[in-house]
Design goal:
Blueprint: H1 2-9, H2 13-32, H3 38-55, H4 60-84, H5 90-96, H6 99-105, H7 113-132, H8 147-162, H9 169-172, H10 175-196, H11 207-210, E1 212-213, E2 217-218, E3 228-234, H12 243-249, H13 259-265, E4 269-270, E5 274-275, H14 281-290, H15 302-305, H16 317-323, E6 327-332, H17 341-347, E7 352-354, H18 373-388, E8 394-399, H19 411-416, H20 420-441, E9 448-454, E10 473-475, E11 488-489, H21 493-500, E12 511-512, E13 516-517, E14 524-528, E15 531-535, E16 540-544, E17 550-554, E18 564-569, H22 572-585, E19 595-598, E20 604-606, E21 625-627, E22 631-641, E23 648-656, E24 659-660, E25 669-671, E26 677-685, E27 689-700, E28 703-714, H23 722-736
Parallel strand pairs: 1-12, 3-8, 3-9, 5-11, 6-7, 6-8
Antiparallel strand pairs: 2-13, 4-10, 9-10, 14-15, 15-16, 16-17, 17-18, 19-28, 20-28, 21-27, 22-26, 22-28, 23-24, 23-25, 23-27
Helix pairs in contact: 2-3, 2-7, 3-8, 4-7, 13-20, 18-20
Length: 737
């Protein structure tokens, strides 16, 4: 014990343990996770060296919070990469410090629990030595010690420029280094704009991205013979999980996590080079169902923007099929109100929109985000049976949720697989196979066009472009080629299904038809994992990172295992890539200013006894809104308890990038039938706001009616125009009736 005490109280014990916490532990984690790019270790050395300089000889009560924050960021970054195959962005940082979100997302446990144990152990040892050696005088660092981490950072940047790498960001940066670098790049961009004055870059040609192209040779000589349409969107599944895609593109990744779906793929048409344009479910659904790119940034989703339109929404797939005699239905395994799917889906043409509340049978698993996949597909099979009893052809869109973090799988699956993520994918594979088998036994596949795809990709470690790699498996009554050559994406799905039936395709749609062969390539874009990607259709693939630095390659298609590196560039040429994305972002609205959204309705919303989660208990769909600099936002709400003898308690929160925004909003206000909550709230937007969300929470007995929840953003000197709110209220009542 005396020997241990002497070692703990040695003047060098605390500095050595500090080095262990901020240098050795991160590099051990990087080595254990197989993140082997030397630039990543250099990044760890630079950040770790800076922390040593800053915290050496500082009081323990000052250093401990910094080390705790450092450990949490490191763990959060690793967990997010494991979960969805991408590094956190600044918006995710705010997301991850919200305790309720963290609680829901980690309810299934950490992907790498030993990492947290190792970090806590290192912190505990440092704290012990720091406390034990507090009477000792720790030696000072050399005067210019700060120069070492600066030199390491400069070396990191120089090596990046000299030796461009295709490695994922987490292989090259640790999180604080990435955030600092992004801030420097943003400053450089502002400085360039200041020096260049009012110079405006020319807008690049957009026709290749926005036009409807039905000039290819048809695969089918006659209109498709299917009577019904079934679109199945699987949460987060990348294209690499299907063996047909792996065989076509021959990637290094060969793990067969979905053997049953891969067997079905042998019976249908597969598109290996299939592009997902963005992250986030609502954006993926919009692209596939409305034939348009969603925002390639964090702006207001176009599905929400479309709520203000009465023309473009009629060109979406469900509306078009409804005009051609189909009954149209949307069924998902989660609640509908988050991201306003309860309003968006009817607006784009679904006759019936149903969510988690539709399922009455007990679930096989408790899952915070919704129904597990087996429960969902068993319910979906019953729903198809109901549709079959009607005389009309039908279109049904299904959306799963079980392969969303923290992943849903029974214990026997968890024991068979290495991780909860893999177990959830295996569970989905079996559930989907049972569903398709049930359709086949009932003869439904004989007259139904089935498209199986995913809303987004949760990515795969060390697999090139996995975050943009989707899949499209089409099962049709007619024989189709097993492999569909060419580059396609979600933006093509609506035009493809309409073209299958030889229906007229609205010219407002973008994209090509999967049921045609094209002699030339096509232009296409995506924004995933923090990288903006563009293929010009002529053999050049470009990828621009958060540093506004673009690398370009020779690549026949978009998704490929390898591409020939040709060089890199920045400046005006890189800005033209961003300009394409900006132009695509404005296909519905030219500006987020003067937008008027109504999220209220006449629906009766049952209340939980208590509020446990800002996300799963949210009662309104006003999420991810965009508010320009210098504007003012007005929120008008009217909430009433439905039953005369029941009271509800209502709170309203505002979040930007999922971080609470300090705005004077109602908290735990008692609401009855006779005394509704009626409020008008105004707040200024001195800086641009993106990913701005309202979370309306309520608890009590009975149900409430949110007859008005309108959000208006306009210039502060505009005169009040109450007619806007009156018109939106009338629209809401008309839609609900």
């Amino acid at each position: 014990m005396k020997v241990l005490y002497r070692r703990l109280t040695h003047p060098l014990a605390s500095p050595i343990m500090l080095v262990g916490c901020v240098l050795l532990v991160p590099m051990i984690l990087r080595l254990a996770l197989g993140w082997s790019d030397p630039l990543g270790y250099l990044s760890d050395l630079g950040i770790g060296g800076l922390l040593i300089v800053l915290l050496h000889r500082r009081p323990w009560w000052l250093a401990l919070p910094v080390l705790l924050a450092w450990s949490v960021l490191t763990l959060a970054s690793i967990e997010l990469v494991s979960a969805v195959g991408r590094m956190p962005t600044p918006s995710d940082i705010h997301y991850l410090i919200d305790p309720q979100f963290v609680e829901s997302s980690t309810s299934g446990g950490f992907a790498h629990p030993w990492l947290a144990v190792l970090q806590l152990a290192a912190l505990a040892l440092w704290l012990m030595t720091r406390w034990a050696s507090r009477p000792s005088l720790t030696p000072r660092l050399p005067r210019h010690a700060w120069a070492l981490p600066v030199m390491l950072w400069l070396a990191h940047g120089a090596l990046q420029s000299w030796r461009p790498t295709e490695a994922d960001q987490w292989n090259v940066f640790n999180l604080p280094h990435q955030l600092v670098t992004a801030g420097i790049v943003a400053g450089q961009e502002r400085a360039e704009q200041w020096f260049e004055g009012d110079t405006v870059d020319p807008l690049p040609p957009m026709e290749g991205l926005t036009r409807l192209d039905l000039d290819g040779a048809k695969l089918l000589a006659e209109p498709g013979g299917a009577r019904n349409v079934l679109v199945i969107a699987l949460e987060g599944i990348p294209g690499a999980y299907l063996s047909t895609n792996r065989q076509a593109l021959n990637p290094r990744y060969q793990e067969n996590l979905m053997p049953r779906l891969s067997a079905w793929a042998e019976r249908g048409m597969n598109t290996p080079d299939y592009v997902l344009h963005s992250h986030q479910t609502i954006r993926g659904l919009y692209a596939m169902l409305c034939g348009d790119y969603d925002k390639l940034n964090d702006g207001t989703p176009k599905g929400v923007e479309m709520l203000n339109q009465s023309q473009r929404n009629q060109d979406c797939l469900p509306a078009q099929l409804r005009q051609n005699g189909f009954s149209t239905h949307f069924l998902q395994g989660a609640g509908l109100r988050f991201m306003a799917k309860d309003r968006i889906m009817p607006h784009i043409g679904f006759d019936t929109t149903l969510g988690m509340d539709w399922f009455t049978q007990p679930a096989y698993l408790e899952f915070p985000w919704g129904k597990d996949d087996k429960t969902f597909f068993e319910g979906a099979l019953d729903y198809v049976g109901q549709l079959q009893q009607a005389d009309k052809p039908w279109m049904l869109t299904l959306l799963t949720v079980g392969t969303h973090q923290p992943y849903s799988a029974p214990d026997d699956y968890l024991q068979r697989y290495e991780s909860a993520k893999q177990a959830a994918v295996g569970y989905l594979d079996d559930a989907l196979d049972s569903f398709l088998t049930g359709l086949e036994r009932q003869g439904i596949l004989e007259n139904t066009l089935v498209v199986i795809t995913s809303d987004e990709s949760h990515g795969i470690d060390d697999v090139r472009l996995a975050s943009s790699w989707g899949f499209n498996l089409t099962l049709a009554p007619e024989p189709l080629p097993t492999i569909k050559s060419g580059t396609y994406g979600h933006v093509d799905l609506t035009a493809s299904i309409l073209d299958y039936f030889s229906y007229a395709v609205p010219t407002s749609l973008s994209g090509r038809s999967l049921f045609r062969d094209y002699a030339t390539g096509r232009e296409i874009m995506s924004f995933t994992n923090g990288k903006l990607r563009h293929h010009d259709g002529k053999g050049t693939f470009t990828e621009c990172d958060f540093q506004q630095r673009c690398r370009y390659y020779t690549s026949e298609g978009f998704i490929a295992e390898r591409a020939l590196y040709r060089g890199q560039y920045s400046g005006q040429r890189a800005r033209l890539i961003s300009a394409r994305a900006t132009a695509l972002d404005q296909t519905l609205l030219r500006t987020p200013l003067n937008q008027h959204y109504q999220f209220g309705s006449a629906d009766k919303i049952p209340l939980p006894a208590t509020v446990t989660n800002d996300w799963t208990d949210n009662l309104i769909g006003a999420q991810y809104l965009e508010m320009p600099k210098g504007s003012q936002t007005r929120v008008s709400l009217t909430i009433r308890a439905v039953e005369a003898d029941h009271a509800a308690y209502i709170s309203l929160k505002a979040k930007e990038f999922e971080r609470d925004v300090p705005i004077d909003l109602p908290t735990d206000v008692a609401v009855t039938h006779e005394q509704p909550l009626v409020m008008d709230i105004r707040f200024d937007n001195p800086l641009p706001r993106k990913a701005f969300s309202f979370h309306l929470l309520g608890h009590g007995a009975g149900a409430i009616e949110i007859s008005d929840f309108s959000v208006v953003t306009e210039l502060p000197d505009q005169t009040d125009q109450p007619q806007y709110l009156d018109d939106m209220q009338d629209d809401s009542e008309a839609q609900s009736s």
